[in-house]
């Protein structure tokens, strides 16, 4: 029961820290809610409150043109007391969500799927952290804490994704599909995770039952479940809102067409401010395809490690999705320690971490210079977001390199420990 | 030398003989005739002898002549044969020469061949005896064949040797490479061994260690014997790895081809709605519509019998037609006695003028009077002047025709001007009239759908600070605006500006003793408005602004007038009007009555600025004229806009044409044709309404925003748009694809070779 004690301590500490922060600094949540790094137009808590206000007064929440989040969040939040007058219940709720996410992480880690799968078993298995350490790393990550205090609704997507993963690695493929359906319903891009996730489920199934049916029927079955889940959620939303097209265009249309160019830590906003209007649609397509194109290549190349494909895709989303925030980065960072055994193979860790720290520290400063002090301009902040993306990209490329290296050594045991050069 | 020695030809000898004979005969004759010889002979006999001798001489001469001729002919023949013979000889001589040359050349060649030193002679062949020993079958062959055989033998030997040399060279290269590799191995071996030792193992190969001074050959021998050679190259890729790579590249390219290209095609293709370009060009060139202006003039003859009236009408129409030189603009008289009581309904607005013929007894000649508030012309005539039915012309009809012609002269000139500005031939107008018309057109504002009128009160001091502007505008301006409402829309703004000083650069007014007034120089009027400081907005909304400035001079400079003319108002072309109001005893409030003259002037200025003609004086007539002018100019301007749009879309094939533009164009064209029809039927109000719609739509389609945006975007700029992002993304993809394709092609070739 020692492990359980540790887990309880970590979870309790994380909960206490969050509540303490919001009690000691009552203005902190509101400050974080307003930060562009924490809340994007599609995850902002302020916008959610606006939608909630309209919803409570029986007005279509999308009428104001401010709220762009999934309609099912509204009844959920209408159960909570007003966040303005009673901030504690909301804080408690968000903290609980974080704990739930951490719990899913523990499950993923404990399954050991990260180090050995159906086709493949990492060589440095012994170098790894246990589930509680990974949960602690996630729970005490400042990015996670900031997201939690900023009450970004992105955490629900995170929950969906993490539960999809944990269900998949524990062999519960139906639950995985339902969770992924929820995540895709909340924000579209998790749907891109479907194929690697199905492969992960399939590998688990084969590993457990030792019966290998065809991949395709399995995938189709699960796709049907996935689709049914999304359609069910959309159906409920339609019942809730009434006008199907209004809410589709206000939520998914908004996420796909990126009309709000509020600055964020991503790469899209500046580009689409500058682009000639006649090319806007074309480059929207290019950017989305760029985001989607990695899925096929990575899945094929790292077929033996589907969970790693999922992790890397989350990293790619954190860089290239239209409205990224630090909550996306924190999800990627949460999954990275599962691959502790790859760390010795990474080459640019220092550089990547310094770039990320640099961007983290200078980003708010440059944003202040631009927006409030007026002594800088948009390029200041954009340069920092470029550095941030660069740091993430280096980290991502480095981990993928390490994973490939690991696979290569697995295939060529006689060459273990040799210098390699990329050609 | 006697001649006989030279001439030996037998054919010439008779000639010589005959000539000698002739000479003798001559001598003989001479002797006979010699007076000194013998005088004793009978002269008669002598004469007889002489004549006989002479006859003989003549006979001889005749023969001689014939023979001479023969001789000459023969000489000629001889010459010819000589020349032929000569030619023959020359030819033969030349042949001989050639033969000589040939002979010499051949001798030279033979000598060269004989003295040629061939390589084979110097070839270091094996000696004959040895060769014969090797190949005894050549024992019997002659020397030549023997030599050939020996040379062939030598060639074969040498080729064999060369091959051997090449192989040796290759072996040498391989050995050098091997040597280098061994050296490297040796170097790495050192490290390996050190590591080996560090780990703590002992090994039999210890002897091979730490011996870098020994020659590479021995060391490599050592390694060969003691350790298995370590492969430096990575192991060959497994087929699954190759297949995986192929799949990865295929996955990326599938996204590009099946999603990327359709998106590119869909989002960057330019939508070009089809436009009726030929129609538009035709409109612009004036081929579709020739604006005509048939003005209908109603003639009322309450006191005339119908027959007389018809007659008068006909003759007047004749006179009018004779007078008119401008076919597009003509007057049509119409008798309206049929129902004088019933007010004409629809056509009333389009009736240009009503002529009422009234008899008056005490007149010597006809007299015309215009009503000031209606479109009516009263013509008073002495009853005696009613033309008899038979008369084709009468003073009365001539008078009416002249009067009408005069009334519409200016309108005709303006329309001619407008048409000729658009390259439609108009009527010749007198230069004076054309000049005044051009000046008037230059002064008036450009046509707009909406005008903003801004009335401003400026005063250099603190008073007057208020004016009764609402009432003044209502009384003086609103009626005009109402009258103009079919032509344009108007908004009215007013402002009062106190302490409005004139600009420092403007010359101050001077005091004129004779008129006891302050005067402004006429040339300085343009500087009167202090454009830098007075808040006169150039545009209040869409559409031009017409400014009217009421200036109250300060009490110290009152009254203020323009020098010489003593006028108090002037017009600023295409901008507005100014009025200097000098109210008595400087009130703080300007009443409607005080403002009256100023606003009267303003309404006149407004008419001028809006382009109303100066004649004929009654306002309704001027408005009607303006209606016609505006209809014509709008029609033409919308047509030319259509033409410009058509040319624009044809010359820039990459600009998009949204569907709204196509709709606008078709609306424009339909309204243009309806306007043209209305004009032809003399319905000018309807024509103006259609032309306004057409103009508005034409402008909207021409200045469509999405078209203008693309207009300045040439194709080469697209490179700059695509390349910065797609270039870096595309290069690895394309290189990967090329590598893969190369590999597939080489594998295919390999398979074919096998």
Automatic annotation (TrEMBL), chain A:
The keyword Membrane applies. It is found in: Endoplasmic reticulum membrane. GO terms for cellular component: GPI-anchor transamidase complex. Residues 1-34 form the signal peptide. Its main location: endoplasmic reticulum. InterPro entries: PIG-U. The chain crosses the membrane at residues 134-165, 177-202, 223-248, 268-295, 307-325, 345-367, 379-404. Pathway: Glycolipid biosynthesis; glycosylphosphatidylinositol-anchor biosynthesis. It is a multi-pass membrane protein. Keywords: Endoplasmic reticulum, GPI-anchor biosynthesis, Membrane, Signal, Transmembrane, Transmembrane helix. It comes from the Eukaryota. One of its GO terms (biological process) is GPI anchor biosynthetic process. Belongs to the PIGU family. This is GPI transamidase component PIG-U. It comes from Aspergillus eucalypticola (strain CBS 122712 / IBT 29274). The lineage of its organism: Eukaryota, Fungi, Dikarya, Ascomycota, Pezizomycotina.
TrEMBL record, chain B:
The chain crosses the membrane at residues 248-265, 719-738. Residues 151-185 form a coiled coil. Pathway: Glycolipid biosynthesis; glycosylphosphatidylinositol-anchor biosynthesis. Residues 209-238 are annotated as: Disordered. One of its GO terms (biological process) is attachment of GPI anchor to protein. InterPro entries: PtdIno-glycan_biosynth_class_S, THO_Thoc5. Its main location: endoplasmic reticulum. It is found in: Endoplasmic reticulum membrane; Nucleus. Residues 210-222 have a biased composition (Polar residues). Keywords: Coiled coil, Endoplasmic reticulum, Glycoprotein, GPI-anchor biosynthesis, Membrane, Nucleus, Transmembrane, Transmembrane helix. GO terms for cellular component: GPI-anchor transamidase complex; nucleus. It is a multi-pass membrane protein. Belongs to the PIGS family. Belongs to the THOC5 family. PANTHER family: GPI TRANSAMIDASE COMPONENT PIG-S. This is GPI transamidase component PIG-S. It comes from Aspergillus eucalypticola (strain CBS 122712 / IBT 29274).
């Amino acid at each position: 029961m020692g492990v359980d004690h540790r887990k309880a301590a970590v979870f309790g500490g994380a909960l206490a820290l969050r509540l303490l922060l919001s009690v000691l600094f009552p203005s902190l949540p509101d400050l974080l809610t307003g930060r562009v790094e924490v809340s994007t137009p599609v995850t902002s808590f302020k916008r959610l409150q606006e939608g909630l206000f309209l919803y409570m007064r029986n007005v279509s929440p999308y009428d104001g043109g401010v709220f762009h989040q999934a309609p099912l969040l509204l009844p959920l939040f209408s159960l909570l007391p007003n966040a303005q007058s009673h901030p504690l219940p909301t804080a408690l709720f968000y903290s609980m969500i974080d704990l739930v996410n951490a719990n899913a992480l523990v499950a993923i880690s404990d399954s050991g799927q990260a180090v050995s799968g159906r086709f493949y078993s990492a060589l440095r298995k012994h170098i790894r952290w246990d589930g509680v350490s990974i949960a602690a790393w996630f729970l005490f990550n400042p990015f996670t804490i900031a997201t939690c205090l900023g009450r970004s609704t992105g955490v629900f997507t995170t929950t969906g994704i993490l539960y999809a993963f944990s269900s998949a690695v524990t062999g519960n493929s139906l639950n995985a599909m339902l969770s992924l359906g929820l995540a895709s319903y909340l924000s579209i891009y998790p749907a891109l995770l479907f194929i690697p996730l199905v492969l992960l489920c399939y590998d688990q199934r084969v590993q457990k039952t030792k019966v290998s049916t065809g991949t395709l029927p399995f995938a189709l079955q699960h796709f049907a479940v996935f689709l049914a889940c999304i359609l069910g959620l959309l159906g409920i939303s339609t019942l809730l809102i009434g006008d199907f097209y209004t809410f589709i265009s206000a939520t998914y249309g908004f996420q796909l067409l990126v009309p709000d160019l509020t600055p964020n830590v991503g790469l899209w906003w500046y580009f689409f401010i500058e682009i000639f209007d006649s090319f806007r649609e074309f480059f929207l397509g290019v950017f989305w395809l760029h985001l989607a194109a990695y899925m096929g290549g990575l899945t094929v190349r790292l077929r033996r490690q589907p969970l790693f494909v999922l992790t890397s895709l989350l990293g790619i989303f954190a860089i290239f999705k239209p409205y990224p925030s630090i909550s996306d980065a924190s999800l990627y960072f949460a999954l990275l320690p599962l691959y502790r055994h790859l760390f010795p193979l990474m080459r640019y860790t220092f550089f990547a971490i310094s770039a990320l720290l640099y961007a983290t520290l200078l980003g708010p400063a440059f944003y202040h210079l631009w927006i409030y002090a007026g002594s800088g301009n948009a390029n200041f902040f954009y340069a920092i977001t470029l550095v941030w993306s660069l740091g993430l990209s280096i980290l991502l490329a480095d981990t993928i390199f390490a994973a490939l290296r690991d696979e290569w050594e697995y295939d060529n045991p006689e060459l273990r420990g040799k210098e390699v050069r990329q050609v | 030398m006697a001649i006989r020695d030279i001439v030996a030809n037998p054919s010439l000898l008779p000639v010589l003989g005959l000539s000698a004979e002739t000479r003798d005969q001559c001598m003989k004759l001479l002797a006979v005739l010699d007076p000194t010889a013998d005088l004793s002979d009978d002269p008669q006999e002598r004469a007889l002898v002489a004549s006989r001798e002479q006859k003989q001489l003549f006979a001889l001469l005749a023969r001689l002549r014939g023979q001479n001729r023969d001789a000459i002919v023969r000489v000629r023949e001889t010459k010819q044969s000589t020349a032929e013979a000569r030619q023959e000889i020359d030819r033969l001589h030349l042949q001989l020469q050639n033969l000589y040359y040939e002979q010499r050349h051949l001798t030279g060649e033979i000598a060269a061949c004989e003295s040629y030193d061939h390589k084979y002679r110097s070839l270091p062949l094996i000696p004959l005896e040895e060769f014969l020993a090797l190949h005894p079958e050549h024992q019997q062959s002659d020397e030549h064949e023997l030599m050939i055989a020996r040379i062939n033998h030598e060639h074969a030997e040498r080729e064999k040797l060369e091959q051997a040399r090449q192989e040796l060279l290759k072996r040498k290269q391989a050995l050098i490479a091997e040597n280098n590799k061994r050296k490297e191995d040796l170097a790495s071996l050192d490290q390996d061994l050190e590591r080996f030792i560090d780990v703590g193992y002992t090994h039999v190969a210890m002897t091979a260690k730490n011996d870098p001074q020994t020659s590479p050959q021995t060391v490599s021998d050592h390694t060969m014997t003691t350790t298995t050679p370590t492969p430096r190259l990575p192991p060959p890729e497994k087929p699954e790895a190759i297949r995986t790579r192929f799949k990865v590249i295929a996955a990326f390219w599938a996204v590009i081809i099946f999603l990327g290209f359709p998106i590119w095609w869909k989002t960057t293709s330019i939508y070009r709605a089809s436009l009726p370009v030929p129609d538009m060009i035709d409109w612009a060139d004036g081929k579709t519509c020739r604006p005509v202006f048939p003005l209908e003039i109603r003639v009322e003859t309450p006191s005339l019998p119908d027959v007389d009236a018809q007659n008068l009408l006909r003759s007047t129409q004749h006179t009018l037609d004779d007078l008119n030189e401008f076919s597009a603009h003509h007057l049509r008289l119409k008798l309206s006695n049929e129902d004088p009581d019933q007010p004409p309904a629809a056509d009333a607005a389009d009736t240009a003028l009503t002529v009422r013929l009234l008899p008056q007894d005490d007149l010597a000649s006809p007299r015309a009077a215009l009503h000031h508030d209606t479109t009516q012309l009263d013509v008073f005539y002495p009853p005696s002047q009613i033309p008899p039915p038979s008369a084709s012309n009468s003073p009365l009809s001539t008078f009416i025709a002249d009067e009408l012609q005069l009334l519409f002269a200016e309108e005709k000139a303006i329309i001619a001007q407008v048409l000729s500005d658009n390259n439609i031939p108009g009527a010749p107008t007198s230069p004076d009239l054309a000049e005044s018309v051009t000046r008037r057109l230059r002064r008036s504002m450009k046509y707009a759908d909406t005008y903003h009128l801004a009335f401003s009160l400026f005063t250099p001091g603190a008073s007057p600070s208020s004016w009764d502007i609402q009432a003044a505008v209502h009384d003086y301006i609103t009626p005009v605006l109402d009258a103009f409402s079919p032509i344009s829309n108007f908004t009215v703004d007013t402002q009062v500006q106190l302490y409005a000083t004139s600009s420092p650069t403007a010359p101050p007014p001077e005091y004129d003793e004779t008129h006891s007034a302050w005067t402004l120089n006429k040339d300085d009027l343009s500087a009167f408005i202090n454009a830098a400081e007075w808040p006169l907005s150039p545009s209040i909304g869409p559409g031009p602004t017409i400014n009217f400035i009421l200036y109250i001079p300060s009490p110290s400079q009152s009254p203020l007038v323009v020098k010489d003319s003593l006028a108090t108002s002037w017009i600023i072309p295409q901008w507005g009007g100014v009025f200097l109001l000098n109210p008595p005893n400087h009130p703080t409030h300007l009443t409607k009555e005080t403002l009256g003259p100023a606003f009267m002037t303003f309404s006149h200025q407004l008419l001028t600025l809006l382009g109303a003609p100066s004649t004929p004086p009654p306002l309704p007539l001027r408005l009607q004229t303006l209606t016609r002018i505006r209809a014509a100019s709008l029609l033409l301007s919308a047509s030319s806009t259509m033409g410009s749009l058509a040319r624009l879309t044809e010359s820039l094939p990459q600009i998009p044409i949204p569907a709204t533009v196509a709709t606008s164009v078709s609306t424009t064209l339909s309204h243009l044709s309806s306007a043209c029809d209305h004009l032809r039927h003399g319905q000018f109000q309807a024509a103006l309404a259609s032309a306004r719609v057409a103009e508005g739509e034409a402008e909207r389609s021409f200045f469509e925003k999405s078209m203008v945006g693309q207009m300045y975007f040439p194709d080469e700029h697209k490179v700059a748009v695509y390349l910065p992002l797609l270039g870096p993304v595309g290069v690895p993809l394309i290189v990967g694809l090329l590598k893969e394709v190369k590999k597939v092609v080489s594998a295919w070739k390999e398979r074919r070779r096998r």
